[in-house]
Amino acid sequence: MVLIEILGGEGEIGGNKILLEHKGTRIFLDFGMSFKQNGLFFSEFLNPRKCSGLGDLFEFGLLPDMEGIYREDYLAHMGRLPEERSVDAVFLSHAHADHAQYIHFLRWDIPVYCTGASKIILGCLQDTGSNTFSDLIDVCEAFRFYTNRNGGLSRVDRKKEDYIHKRDLCVMEENKKISIGSIEVEMVPVDHSLPGACGFIIYTDEGNIVYTGDIRFHGLNGHLSRRFVEKARDARPKWMLCEGTRIDSDHRDSEAEVQKKISELISRSEGMVFVEHPIRDIDRTNSILNAAKENGRHFTIPLKLAHLVESLGPHCPFCLDDVKILAPRKKWGLISKTGMAQEQVDQDYAKWERDYIYRPNSITCEDLRGSPAGYVVSMSMWEIGQLADIKPAGALWIKSSCEPFCEEMELDEARKMNWLEHFGIGHENAHASGHASGEELREMIRDIRPEILIPVHTERVDMFEDLCRHIKNAD
Ligand SMILES: [Zn+2]
Ligand SMILES: [Zn+2]
């Protein structure tokens, strides 16, 4: 018997945690954070407390209280006895937080299978993240003491290598099935708003399962999604776990159109152009870079994105030398003072940031101010404070990201508009979703023709009912 248990991602967008069980083999498809459930109880400034281990996450339904899957250090801190591992592996469709974030809480001896690009992104998230729950690549034991040089007790931190455990992150190759107990798993790359996204085909002797992950057809890699559909169809799946973020929207988006629109907006603008975009959407970053180039402008990106681009290497369609890196003023702001020793300037930055502020293509806000029409600047609410250094005149802000979908984002949006109004900056939109439209989803389901359709990652399960009926009638 094949058991499919949806422990997150049912009737909501994200938080996917899907448990598959067959003849004693148990695997998870994704282990993400539910933004919706988290938002009911927590905010940017009110988080589940680390001191309660997993307690707060169980209390508010953010994690399932299951035996044999969680980190021993957290369990011990909660007074729970060590548990036997009960899951064989986690298969990660992509590195967005709603699919990957809660890997932090998993035992470090559970192998995590993902694509090469996903592994790199997880590494960047761990290096540069501000989140306390980001032990994605390796785990630093929490709540542990060691005996220090004075014979006293000190708390373990990341400097104590003996307490760091590497996760077993296994990179999957195309056309190479992974055998885990009684099942086989094949990774098939798909198009999504993040490099390294994939779907899975899971083979068992009692029927095959297809999982779309997050999927779209209108990005730079639309052909990958079409190939996924073909492979999924050929597997003649019994079950299909299908994402349905936009099942209720029939607007066919296009990444190419976004680039065209951004290019047009830049061409009409005489001042500086700021573009707000999802930082890890490398397709979008590439579209903006192309639009900037078409207009003879430089594109500047923030440090975090610079780190991601360089880490991705061949997984990124452009290289770091193709863009400028904006080194912001931080802490004491010494980067803009003349005659400062590098040692002093460095102290303003995190270790990983220091590698990017002295590159030949690194620039500062002063450089931008001197040549406003020469640049397109990647900017978000994280960096918006720099507008006070740039003081742009006649500038334009292009919002190239999704509309706010929670109260916190709405407040941020309102605050952003105040900043733009303050500096007299115009506002335009140019965006395409990371998800397939309703029509494309229906087409995909009709092509793959599963026996049983299981919608996930959607608030509109009701809109799948007709499709389920259609599949049944076709038999
Ligand atoms: Zn998602
Ligand atoms: Zn996603």
Layout: helices, strands, pairs:
Elements: E1 2-8, E2 17-22, E3 25-31, H1 35-41, H2 55-59, H3 72-77, E4 89-91, H4 97-100, E5 112-114, H5 116-128, E6 138-140, E7 145-147, E8 153-155, E9 164-166, E10 169-171, E11 178-180, E12 183-189, E13 198-203, E14 209-211, H6 222-234, E15 239-243, H7 255-268, E16 273-276, H8 282-294, E17 298-301, H9 303-312, E18 324-326, H10 342-346, H11 351-354, E19 362-363, H12 365-370, E20 375-378, H13 387-390, E21 396-399, H14 407-422, E22 426-429, H15 438-448, E23 452-456, H16 465-474
Parallel strand pairs: 3-4, 4-5, 5-10, 14-15, 15-23, 16-20, 16-21, 17-18, 17-20, 18-19, 21-22
Antiparallel strand pairs: 1-2, 2-3, 6-9, 7-8, 11-12, 12-13, 13-14
The structure holds zinc ion (2 copies).
The site of one zinc ion has 6 residues, from helix 4.
Structural account:
The chain has helices at 35-41, 55-59, 72-77, 97-100, 116-128, 222-234, 255-268, 282-294, 303-312, 342-346, 351-354, 365-370, 387-390, 407-422, 438-448, 465-474, and strands at residues 2-8, 17-22, 25-31, 89-91, 112-114, 138-140, 145-147, 153-155, 164-166, 169-171, 178-180, 183-189, 198-203, 209-211, 239-243, 273-276, 298-301, 324-326, 362-363, 375-378, 396-399, 426-429, 452-456. By secondary structure, the chain is α/β, with parallel strands linked by helices. The strands form five sheets. Strands 19-18-17-20-16-21-22 form a seven-stranded parallel β-sheet. The chain has a six-stranded mixed β-sheet with strand order 1-2-3-4-5-10. Strand 11 and strand 12 (183-189) form a beta hairpin. It is globular and about 70 Å long. The chain binds zinc ion (2 copies). The site of one zinc ion (ZN) has 6 residues, from helix 4. The site of one zinc ion (ZN) has 6 residues, from loops.
